[in-house]
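User: Hey, quick favor. My workstation is busy. Could you predict this chain's structure for me?
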Amino acid sequence: MDTMTFTGLARALDTAGILRAATAGADDVRVHGAACDSRAVAPGDVFVCKGAAFRPAFLTSALAAGAVAYLCDESRADELAALAPDAPALVTSDLRRAMAIVSAEAFGRPDRALPLVGITGTKGKTTTAYLLRSILDAWHGFGSCGMIGTVETYDGVEDGPSRNTTPEAPDLWRHLAHARTSGLDALVMEVSSQALKYDRTLGVELDVACFLNIGLDHISAVEHADFEDYFTSKLKIFSQGRTAVVNLDTDHADRVLAAARASGRTLTFGVGRPEADAWADDLAATEEGISFTLHLDGWERRVSLPFPGEFSVSNALCAALAAHLLGAGADDIVRGLERTRVPGRMEFYRTADRQVTAIVDYAHNRLAFDSLLSAVAGTFAGARVIAVFGAVGGKAEERRRDLPEVAARYADYLIFTTDDPWTEDPLDICHEMERAIPEGFPHEIVLDREEAVARAFELAAPQRSVVLLLAKGSDATQHMATGFVPCATDSELAAAGVAAYDRAHAV
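Assistant: No problem, here it is.
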């Protein structure tokens, strides 16, 4: 891979119409990458001076770590030039767009060297990404497919938990460069509405751009001002895709299909939709999961998923169609779908006497709650359903109304608890959720999440019950006013609850 020059980066920003100044005499400075965290700077990087929390000392640290130039907004240009007069600088009128453009060029456009699939939607992004990754691993071998998403990031070099669903542009392009260097066969990425709105993914060329569904979520002063802003942001994914893959069953399908014309071509999927390119029928649900007949490209196969719900079938159709577009065959598609495991998503834990089933799922918005709880109510007919969940602080305030309102339609008992309250009092959030349920509906507030889960198992015994642990999944931290505080994951709490039940009810 040829390295980029400082002049080349300046030219790219000038072409985009957002270059305000570039240090003269730095033409031959060679650039190998980009970073927006001074602790992650590698020699040869451009350092991006961004964010409300930025401090001039960060630039000093970045230069000491080997940064060869920096990128900044014009409002900071004079201050930083005085701090580091000898460092080549790129000054821009639009830092977010510039950060994406510079990162793409500095890392040598790795998106053009491996198949990329981007997935967006209000719910199901993570599960669909894992379904697709499982298919591609079945085809090429385990570890052959990279992943950038809510739960984890794997690029052939780095492998660990994610902080954001879609990382900032310098981090995103670094992961793509690692995937290219490692020789991965493909990479699957979740694409959040925030990433699309704020240009984190700007310039990434997707072989397949998948649109799962759209519902109300992420509406707040710090996210999207209204549903239109949220929806418009989601639709931007099609401007980056060669092929659009669209769910015919989504709300506002006509508008989504119209926007999908920005891609080179459009393929569709849907449950009970023979007019679609990939479709399913003959669904059969059990307490172990759901099976269906998959129709794709003239063939049909029976598939058994290890988790329930028609929404799971929809996610599987999307993954199957995307994998088919990349070249996967029927055998690999079926095998990959059937052996998928998703951390913190649709995880089942069962007591020895099979009386109590705990389900851990990341469902955290109205659409996801409705899909999951309706599936559980239908699959576990006659079982008592106890749901444990909270709502986040500082954003997505609609969830405080939507989640309890939906849960009260399907569950028998609700336990409100703490879920990333940030700077807010979790008790206040729980009281807001209380006001959204019918008067007299059975519920309680248990702020300590571990105690809340233990209480749910107490209520479940000894009758046939389902305990739903919602919205945290495999997340091992609580976002509090003091920062991210370690906590047990819902998966760990479910396993502990089952073990405690089995000890207390040993046969």
